[in-house]
Design brief:
73% helix, mainly alpha, 197 residues, single chain, globular
Length: 197
Amino acid sequence: MSSRFKQDFTTVTLVLIPVAIAINIAVGQTIYTLKVPLYVDSIGTVLVGVLAGPWAGALTGLLSNLIWGLSGLNVTYAPYAAVAAVIGLLAGLFGESGWLKQWWKVILAGIITGLVAAAISAPITAYVFGGVTGSGTDVIQAMFQSAGFAVLPASFGQGVSSDPLDKTVTYLIVWLIVRALPERFMARFPRAENLKG
């Protein structure tokens, strides 16, 4: 495992990670400010995961949320760092399993990742933030609570309603990026051979 771990963290991967973190924060903060009921804050994480493997993806997700939250740009993101790490890990696993070669598997990977993210993030949303994070998804949370759901079930309902769509959009964007990248550039990444059919 240690040789595989080292193989994934090549120089080009270490250069890509900060760029991916910047993409996550820039796009995610824009969506948050516009109050769109999605996140679209994992594009960089999923991209690193599929190009460089699950550990690099997990590290990118973890660092994105910690930097974003602890920098003061948006403090609500730090508690979700573990969720972001799982998203990167799953992206790496789906990538190395060849799921990004066919569009329908890309959609399925997004749905599965979204459901997992919803399950992990619901307790954080409920118990750390009382169901209100200031994002566009608060509208969905409020709908569930006004229908009589307690905070935790409402948080889970909100996650299941928005996360699968959000992660599917994210995976499709990454799939289009990967398909547009030149073969010569792709060849620099440790997991590139798993991505194009």
